[in-house]
Each structure stands twice: as structure tokens, then as C-alpha cells.
Design goal:
Largest sheet: none
Order of helices and strands: HHHHHH
CATH topology: Ferritin
Mean pLDDT: 88
Number of strands: 0
Low-confidence stretches: none
Radius of gyration: 19 Å
Strand content: under 5%
CATH class: Mainly Alpha
CATH architecture: Up-down Bundle
Number of domains: 1
Shape: globular
Number of helices: 6
CATH superfamily: Ferritin, core subunit, four-helix bundle
Structural class: mainly alpha
Helix content: over 70%
Amino acid sequence: METITQIQKIKETGMSTKEKQSDINVSEVFHLWSHLIQRYNMIHTSNVMGAFAQDDELKLIISIGHKTLNENVKLLEQKMEEYAIPMPIRPPKLAQTTTVMEQMTDRYIFRRILRGIQSVLPTHTMAFIHSTSPKIRELFMSFLIEEMKIYDRFMEYGKLKGYDYMPPVYKP
């Protein structure tokens, strides 16, 4: 796919925005827009969750995830600008917390973030499947692979901390 992407980059060098828009389909536009909204929401959620986290390791993991999300946002915003796709409304950069909630435990924060990661994996897959442009497919594939690696590491962290759900042992 790299060769095709390189050929497409050369082809797009002198193209106008209108000409570039003809190389992507409406589904790709939707997925770019939808992924950007998801990233904005995930950043907002991680800001809120990070403010309540007690465990230093969990705070670090949230911080690393926040950095990854911001990198994804930058890539998506560049693609949106490249194709002149209108930007969605961005949530506030900082989450204001005014109270300490005892119910917001590290276990709850872990499970909430884990559920978020789980819910976005099929989104990446469908975006990849619906994309006809090699450049856009490559972007969604990179998001999927990156998300799977994050999920794997996050699950192992949850096991170490005892935050994960342990299904009953199967005894035939």
C-alpha cells in the first residue's frame, strides 16, 4: 500500500482542493469527521477522568493516552483541512472539576477508559472497510493497529492492578 500512497501523493502535488475532494467518497468524509469527534470526546473524557485518578501509574497512562489522542487529532484535522471538510465543534481543552467524588475510583476510571477503547475498535475497522482511497485507508489502518496495541497494554495494566473483570473459570 505504501507504493500506491506515494503515487497518490505525487499525483496530488498540483491538485486543487476541489480535485482532491473527487478522490475521496462521502463515507470517507463521514469517517474522518466522526473519528475527529470521537477523539475530541475521548480527550475531554480523559481530562475529567485524569482529574480524579489517584494512582500515579494510572495518571501516567492517561497522560500518554492523551498525547496519542492529540497526535491523532492533529492528523485528522490536517486531512479535514486538506479536503476542506468542515470541522466539528471542539470541546473545552481543560476539564474543570469542582468537587472530589469518592465514587470516581481508579477501578471505575480504568473500566470507563477500557470501554472507550473497546468501542472505538470496530469504528476503525468500518472506516477502513468503507475507504476507497489508499491514503485514507492507511490512516484508518494505522489508527486500528495503534488502538489494538494500546488496548493490549491497557488490559495487562488492568490485570496487574486487579481492575479488570474476571470471568468465572470454566470447569467442564
